[in-house]
Amino acid sequence: MAYKIIESQCTVCGMCEPICPNEAIYEKRGMFYINADLCTECEGFFDSAQCADVCPVSNTCVPA
């Protein structure tokens, strides 16, 4: 499974992009997205999804 970013809640702060160990998060036309093919929910790197942990808005980075 992968994570996704709820666009309507994203503030485009950019905190999630550099923290992703798989470089699955990218910016396109002023919004951040998660490439589901690259996202591993940080498995093998961390105990929890780092995008969700650093996001300042609760429930913006969620399981897809």
From TrEMBL:
Gene3D superfamilies: 3.30.70.20. The keyword Kinase does not apply. Signal peptide: none annotated. Residues 1-30 form the 4Fe-4S ferredoxin-type domain. It comes from Acidihalobacter prosperus. It holds the Pfam family Fer4. InterPro entries: 4Fe4S_Fe-S-bd (IPR017896), 4Fe4S_Fe_S_CS (IPR017900). This is Ferredoxin. Keywords: 4Fe-4S, Electron transport, Iron, Iron-sulfur, Metal-binding, Transport. GO terms for molecular function: 4 iron, 4 sulfur cluster binding; metal ion binding. The keyword Iron-sulfur applies. SUPFAM superfamilies: 4Fe-4S ferredoxins. The lineage of its organism: Bacteria, Pseudomonadati, Pseudomonadota, Gammaproteobacteria, Chromatiales.
